[in-house]
Design brief:
The chain is of the alpha/beta class and 243 residues long. It has one domain (3-140, 204-242): Rossmann fold (3-Layer(aba) Sandwich), CATH 3.40.50.300. It is 51% helix and 13% strand. It contains nine helices and seven strands. Strands 2-3-1-4-7 form a five-stranded parallel β-sheet, with helices on both faces. Strands 5-6 form a two-stranded antiparallel sheet. A hairpin with a 6-residue loop joins β5 (151-153) and β6 (160-162). The protein is globular and about 60 Å long.
Amino acid sequence: MSSSVSTETSMESSRATESNTAPGPILLLGAPGVGKGTQAKELVKLWSIPQISTGDLLRANVAEGTKLGRVAKEIMGRGELVPDSLVNEMVAVRLLEPDTARGYILDGFPRTLGQATWLDARLSAQIESLPLVAVSIQVNYNQLLRRITGRRNCPVCQTIYNVYMNPPKREGICDVEGAALIQRADDTEEVFKERMRAYTALTAPVVDHYRALGRFAEVDGDRPIAVIAAGIVAAAERLRHAA
């Protein structure tokens, strides 16, 4: 990394950490493999706000046997998808928690236009609530394909390698355990293509929605983790000032 990029990253990270301005709700978007989860964790550390994943919410409600969790469990037991209305209710309950007062990172919600319009309406009804801004992490399709299909795991120590970008010293063998590396069943090109089609179909209307509102930005995700995080911080601040 060049010294100018390092300086820029350091300044952006410092500004995010020291600022007393509430970051508000931030929606992170990105195709499978872009590193959305990694960036969410970076932003949680920078801003001291929670990451809210609808997948985690759903699992927690089912595990705790809440009223919403029991309904969701029954629906999933029939092999049906949990409807937007139920997911919205779970999110609404989570957003009442005090740790969301300054803002939060949304991961996996809103993933449909219906969820996006519901959330906007809910936030606009709250006098002190900032509007949601959406930042999409962009990585070239072929690079994403290499990240996913090149992934190999050690079944013993769980170390993750990539045959293209982070290969083991001996082909197919874990450096630590000497065990044969395995490829997850869903780390294939066929599965990746299907996930990309589903992601694009669901997310395109959400992107169009926030772009039309002037609350959408893109950042280059094919860079070091800290540089991407700095880009997200800068994009969110620009969108906040423009809102």
